């Protein structure tokens, strides 16, 4: 009798532990942005989605107004992979900035991200690429951004390739060379 009771208590405790683990997993997976495995990150999209963001002076900047190839990078200051990728993108901006439009799109409002903090971060590090603010999440929604960093390479014809996650400079350079044709 006593062993039956202990068995029932043990089974109940196991059920409670499993239920707690399932609930914790669902909560964490909804609130944590993780970079998916490399093989799932590269997506072809066509044509490139349109959006409007704000430049550092508060002026509207629309993707539709840009002629030629474009590199979009969605980032925040709280994202370690984003901040590790920024110096590489700045190097590529210096190299390709005359041929390709770079739009470094900061996701304002994400975990307290704001233009003042973002601009201070960029200025402290001396980056030269242009910064834009996605204050209404319009750009992020247009490209279905769910992970950071996300970089989108847009050909002159408007077709695009979306890359999620931090990438080495050589790979990013290769994508830029591809959109230059």
Give a structural overview.
With 181 residues, the chain is α+β, with helices and mostly antiparallel strands. Helix content is 41%, strand content 19%. It folds into two domains: 1-32; 38-180, Glutaredoxin, CATH 3.40.30.10. An eight-stranded mixed β-sheet has the order 1-8-7-4-5-6-2-3. The protein is elongated, with a radius of gyration of 21 Å. The N and C termini lie far apart (79 Å). The model is unreliable at 24-41 (pLDDT under 50).
What are the key terms here?
single chain; alpha+beta; Glutaredoxin; 2 domains; eight-stranded mixed beta sheet; elongated
List SSEs in N-to-C order. HEEEEHEHEHEEH
**Mean residue pLDDT:** 84
Overall radius of gyration: 21 Å
How many strands? 8
CATH class type of the largest domain: Alpha Beta
CATH topology (level 3) name of the largest domain: Glutaredoxin
Count of distinct structural domains? 2
Helix content: 40-55%
- The oligomeric status of these chains comes to single chain
Termini, distance in Å? 79 Å
How many helical stretches? Answer: 5
CATH superfamily of the largest domain: Glutaredoxin
**What structural category characterises the helix and strand content?**
alpha+beta
Described by the principal axes of the CA atoms, the overall outline is elongated
């Amino acid at each position: 009798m006593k062993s039956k009771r202990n068995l029932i208590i043990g089974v109940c405790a196991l059920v409670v532990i499993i239920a707690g683990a399932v609930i914790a997993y669902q909560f964490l997976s909804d609130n944590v942005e993780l970079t998916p495995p490399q093989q799932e990150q590269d997506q072809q999209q066509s044509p490139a989605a349109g959006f409007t963001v704000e430049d550092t002076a508060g002026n509207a900047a629309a993707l539709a107004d840009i002629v030629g190839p474009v590199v979009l990078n969605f980032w925040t200051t709280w994202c370690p992979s984003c901040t590790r990728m920024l110096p590489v993108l700045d190097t590529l901006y210096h190299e390709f900035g005359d041929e390709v439009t770079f739009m470094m799109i900061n996701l304002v409002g994400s975990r307290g991200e704001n233009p003042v903090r973002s601009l201070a971060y960029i200025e402290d590090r001396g980056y030269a690429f242009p910064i834009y603010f996605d204050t209404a999440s319009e750009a992020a929604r247009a490209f279905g951004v769910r992970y950071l960093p996300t970089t989108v390479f847009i050909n002159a014809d408007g077709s695009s390739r979306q890359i999620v996650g931090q990438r080495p400079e050589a790979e990013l350079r290769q994508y830029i060379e591809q959109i230059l044709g």
